[in-house]
Amino acid sequence: MRRIALLPGDGIGPEVVAEARKVLEAVAAHFDVPFAFEHHLIGGAAMEATGDPLPSSTLASCRVADAVILGAVGGPQWDDPTAKTRPEDGLLGIRAELGLYANLRPIQVHFPEMSPLRDARDVDILFVRELTGGIYFGASGLSEDGTVAHSDMVYSVPEIERVVRLAAAAARARRGRLTSVDKANVLEVSRLWRRTAQRVMDDEFPDVAFDTVLVDAMAMHLLSRPRDFDVVVTGNLFGDILTDEASMLPGSLGMLPSASLGDGRPGLYEPVHGSAPDIAGRGLANPLAAILAAAMALRHSLDLPDAADAVEGAVDAVLAAGIRTPDLAGDGPAASTSEVGDAVAGQVARHK
Fold first, then answer.
1. Predicted confidence band at 327 (pLDDT cuts at 50, 70, 90)?
2. Of 124, 136, 309, 316, which is the active-site residue?
3. In 3D, which of 181, 168, 179 has the Cα closest to residue 207?
4. What is the pLDDT of residues 247-261, one digit of tens each?
5. Would residue 216 show up in a list of annotated catalytic residues for this protein?
6. Catalytic (active site) residue 244
7. Domains (ranges, CATH) in the chain?
8. What is the helix (H) or strand (E) element at residue 55, kind and residue range?
9. Is 211 a catalytic residue?
10. Known active-site residue 352
11. Which residues neighbour 38 within 8 Å (Cβ) at sequence distance 6 or greater?
12. What pTM, to 2 d.p., does this model score?
């Protein structure tokens, strides 16, 4: 029995997680693998119910799960940047508590005509973003008079080594090329990152082609020549910005999943998109990112690669058949959130 913790969260999170569960139930039936699902609170919903964006009961369940699937956190009712506690603290907290130091974000263009680029054919990039270090976790503060603030970007050699190794192993299993992104011309922490990454690659992965790119140049290359990249590894801040930029290459945030991994189970799987409170409860949300996140869970945490292939193939088939939510439908008829989930689950059930 494989245990899956479901954390629907806020906004459209419950809607898209429900469709991911629907598809996983189709996987369970078709591949004869039992899943046990548990629902728990996180983010704003948890704050409303318990006062804590990451309740201890949620964390305890996630620690013993084989995989964790999260919807989204946040919303306008909690959008106070001066608040001591915010829904996003639940997400940062669970990543840290579970030791999830690497965020994998695959960027694939399924239908080039949906991309804002003139020619996005064959774009297939895997971003590996360091997730538990850097400026988001460094010391920060504000002067007494409120006129000076600081946030420290801090990385250690072991933190850099482990994420570069994970990215290099992924590159070895793909097309054999790894690109490291930094700001070594300005930042001392990036110079350490570059030296460490180069040493790991020279000593441990001589068979993987390796290069380094400055972050500002990478921001341009993603738009001018995205097909040139295979696996990209970078720090927390740069990865946050670059993956949001790259997320637009397929044409919709609703298509992009992510996986947050550590040295063991469980992994945390979630769509890249936010909580989209403006469309919550209206059946307009695209569930495919959450469904593809479930496919990543099948592959990376649940040891079911054939089932992952089936889900990904089902998504492609549904899109090719024109069954699309409004963000992808263009001038054609739009399907609802649940209709898309039903279609993917049906394709999985017919998988051969």
1. confident
2. 136
3. 168
4. 889 877 788 999 999
5. yes
6. yes
7. 1-104+256-352 (3.40.718.10), 124-248 (3.40.718.10)
8. none
9. no
10. no
11. 3, 4, 5, 6, 61, 65
12. 0.89
